[in-house]
Fold this protein.
Amino acid sequence: MPYQQREIVASPSGGTSVPPNRLSQLLATMSATQDRGSFRELYDYFAPRLKQFYMRSGTDEAMAEEMVQETFVLVWRKSHLYDPSRSAASTWIFTIARNHRIDRLRREKRFVQKEEHFFEAELVDDGSQDRDVDQPKMSLIINEALAELPPNQAELVRLSFYEEVTHAEIASRLQLPLGTVKSRLRLAFGRLRKKLAEFET
Amino acid sequence: MINHHISDEMLMSYAAGALSEGASLFVASHIHMCKRCAQRVFTAEAVGGALIDELDGVPMSSGSFDDLMLRIENEPSSDAAMERIESTPDLSHIPEPLQLLLGKDYSELSWKSVAPGIKQFILPVGGNRGEKTRLLKLSPGFVTPTHSHRGYELTMVMQGSYSDESGRYKVGDVQEADGEIDHQPIADTDEDCICLIYTDAPLEFKGVINRILQPFIGI
């Protein structure tokens, strides 16, 4: 079925449900043509999710919503940098949102990669990363791998990504020794990477 | 060839945006030199994408998309979206995140002598609870006083090399240490050894002399 005919279904809580390859195609179309319809579909899918993502960092609803709007201004303006052969739409948008959260909430200097650096392959690139990655497949495998993580490892992964807490903060919040926090995160990433080995060079 | 890498838990927390400023600077500098670790960060970012997907979402206010389009049409396309970092060709031996922070070569920094054979330059990055990010320059053949770590320490060689009980560290190599490690690094070539060091607590030096020296060294 051509992707244009796929139906987008609104989930009860606000975010729509869309297959990952559809999202990446939408972002690629928008990137190429500044197509407003594609942008709208991406917005309907990601805006409610990003709002929740920002709220998990401790912002109130109004602030989270403002940050979502700011994020989508960035998505619109940076869309020409998106390369669907290199990353899924959700990965690209995650990096923009993560960076925006650091800029906006922590007001720190940001030393995480600018997303365009990854996507323009400026990083230690010897050409070997220049290949097409089967992004939809990668997304499915990550979702499966996350679901299969032992709960005590998955919890720490979600805390790290959703609440941007350091190892020491996780340790004090969950009353765990710091070494345990580190080893659980290490084990979790090891399991995830094992499943994703085919996508690494 | 980089032989000593950053641990997976640090790479994942970096991708999550969950490291402090100094630790992020450290990891960002390393992955500019190390393809293996850059690839892992990239994988961890894909995990971040999947975690966005798995959220149910909280509905946006009605009309928010139209508001967004108005904003896009009316706000001047600021340079922020287009911002390009220009790296300086002469400084290409310094990884970009560090280069942008320093703006000059290692030789032009105002190094402060902290002990015979050791100079340091504290980097202007935020830190809390005793965190510090610095460059340390060891003179050739200089033996660092034996020290252990109350907290956590990340060290990366930026120029030259050093050796300690655990091995030899060359440009781009990383040593991660915590309170259980006692070590005594030696700059082991005829060149100054410059290291980028992130610590989340002050170091502890062993022995009476070192204890006397410590307040002056301040490291």
